[in-house]
Amino acid sequence: MKKIGHYPYSILSFHTDARGQASMAALCEIFQDAAGLHARERAFGFDDLRANSLAWVLTRFLVRVRRYPRWMEPVTVETWVDSLESLFSVRKFNLLDPQGLILASASSTWALLSLETRRPVPLAQFVDGTPYVTQRECLAEAPMKIHPAEQYQTAYATQVRMGDIDMNGHLNNIRFMAWALDAFPSQRFRQGHLASLEVNFLAECFEGDPLDVQTAEQADPGASLVRLLRTSDQKTTALLRLRFETPAD
Hints:
With 249 residues, this protein is an alpha+beta fold. It has two domains: 5-132, Roll (Thiol Ester Dehydrase, Chain A); 153-245, Thiol Ester Dehydrase, Chain A (Roll). It contains four helices and ten strands. The protein has a ten-stranded antiparallel β-sheet. It is globular, with a radius of gyration of 18 Å. The relative contact order is 0.16.
């Protein structure tokens, strides 16, 4: 089987934002859907792991966007395993337009989680992804650690509800991203191009957990940090960094 998977998508109405183009959260959903298809075809997907009480969990994510596709625009996601380490795997993605040009790229780090202990396990014990490791052009490098700010301001408070829980029994990682994006007014998105989103997932969240969504500006122009703080134990559950660029005239 080929190392790189190619999966066609169309940008549907529920993928779009107020500007009629795919939202950042929608791109992340599409990337992860393609990851699931690629892993399933190679026998290390959701059902294969669930048989051993295991699951893939996303620990870091980086998305870089040149252009957001618009409503009804056909796109293709290509995805591949870029590298394997003892406890994590790096998977990369490209989002292509019909001419094969890269609209966006993403890089992600995944760990194998025991659903019984809720702790990571060595990949080699259950997954042999070595035959599928390859490299190719990608706009996104391997995601790195995000360093926290010293002070934050609370944008709003929320709570994990039933509809936020995924098949692994914890908060869906897309919710982290969507809630972080909601910390900014729509004017920020109209006036600037959201060129990149980085996420470090630091702790699981479960139904009923209360969260504060907090922001901090960065020294780098256009960059902002977002922290999702569980207020019941003051634990940082995720750190995100957004970078806005001024559109070219």
